Amino acid sequence: MGFINATEALIAGAAAAAAVVALYFLKLKRREHVISSTLLWQRTLNDLTANSPFQKLRASLLLLLQLLLLAAAAFALARPMMNLAVSKGGDIILLIDVSSSMNSREAGGARLDLAKDAAKGIIQRMPKLDSMMILAFAGQCTVRRSFTSSKSDLERAVDQITPGEGTTNLEEALSVAIGMGRSRGIVGKDKQRIVILSDGGFEDPAKLKVDGHITAGGVRIFRSTERDAPPDLQESFEIPLQFVSVGKNTRNAAITHLDTRTTSGESAEIFVSVENFSSENIEAGLSLHDRGPDGKSNKLVNAVSISLEPKGSAEAKTSRVFQIPQIADTLLEFTLDVKDDLAADNNAWFPLRKPRRPSVLLVTNGNIFLKKALVPDGDQAHQFAEIRPADYPPGVSFDVTVFDNWAPPALEPGSYIFIGKPPPIKGVEPIGHVKRPVLLDWDHSHPLARFVDFNGVYLMRALHCKLPRHAREVVEGDRCPLIFAVSEIDTRVVCVAFDLIDDDGRLNTNWPFRISFPVFFSNAVSWLNPELYSSAGAAIPVGNPITFDLPADVRTASITNPSGREFTVEADKQRRVAFGKTHLPGPYRVHVEGKDDIWIAANVLSRKESDIAVRESFDWSGSEIGGTDAARETPSEIWKYFALLAVVFLMTEWYVYHRHGR
Exposure winner among 138, 256, 260, 440, fewest CB in 10 A? Predict the structure, then answer.
């Protein structure tokens, strides 16, 4: 049992009890009256014979009832808490959700505060010989405390958990938890359970892929994933899965989408979507401020009023278009002025950069398809030049050079696209040709494949190359890689391992007639352009890593987060930089020596996180995992029972006084 107001209640109860007892020590002060006889007043005469104003404390039922009344009232004032739930033995793997929706305001603080209180309640009820592990998860899962039986260490780890942002990646969290459970199961300790503390704002669990079979009782997994493992490790065991729901409030509206398009070479339009996730109408204001290239300005560009109907209605979502008449290097901030329970999704940032025209050189004996893809009609995005292989090198440098069915004997540092020929770089070795290869799949996460659909592309022949370990296969064939990328310290290469036109002038593929053809080459020029080292894009989901490429002569960069803290990051051997500390929503400033600073914005922009309705239970592979309310999971306040007991003592004291005297 614990108390919330123990000190205050103890002081108040002691003072009241002392006052009541003192009244029983005092003698009554009586007025004098002349009477005919003292026979019936013997007790009063005994009091009068004493000289002291105090009397001896005598046993009194009324005093006992009054003291019990005060004790019950003091206990009620102390707000005692107790949980009578029976604790399960064994290991506990505690998963605490720290995603954006867990920052929603509740009566007892943020949802994360409620989750941490629930976690402490579970820790306090844990038997002494058992152990617990604490994981915090949002977009990524981190171990906050490995298995330990020390309750003080576990509570300290819970206290150190800070609010996060981003979407809830329950799949990764469960994979980590199952891995930990398997390792503990191997040593023979099978009494385990996984407890999820969350508001349920995660992906539909039926779509998750984890290394285990979900049952109504939990997760059934094997002790080992190795096929040649001993028989005792190939047995399966079940880890019970428990979901503790946290939170109640649902009022929230959010900015859910940002998109932009260039309307001309100098102007742009930005599309902003806002959605209401609550069950009531919401009136709000949506404004756009220009923060300037340094992020310190506060120029109002435009502001509009919006009205949103409740969630589920046709008018619960609306979009607005903001005109930017002159594109310049600047930082834009959108603000949704509304009082709701989640503030993180009421702001969104979008960095604008004045487009730079990269220079592209095409080395070919003649290929109208490539020329059309690199310089579409009316498109001035590229500075374009075309030469014959016999005229290479041209004597001037270009940002990107495209070799069509020809390769030079060696490469200078730079960025290149090879078509139908292997690039002359270390580790790429041609083996031969493959007839009629089948395109199997492509890397959807690679910038080269952005908005590209390779379905329906057919080939007559492709070059088969052995690739170095650091090469990345972008398009996969059934017998050879069809498109791959190689990044080195000073050279970056994209290779399309098949001709567009064969040696006889016939088409080798139908790809030039598909929309994916010009889109791919536009992506390739952007990815290879050394000036566009922010190739990950101007905006990312909060919690996702910032990735970009550095120029060949630069090895480090500095990143300043929205709170003003600066980090220094180093590039790998492929000039790639990855920065993962993006849990704060807002603009991140990237500084590279010798280059202009750029902004990369981390925004929530997640309907799943902005829909803060609490899930009580969920279905997983046909099995329902029921939610346990955090209020029931944490120690419950029982002051009302002591208050009721105080009323009982009061009524009893009243009855005794009026029926039997004192």
Answer: 440
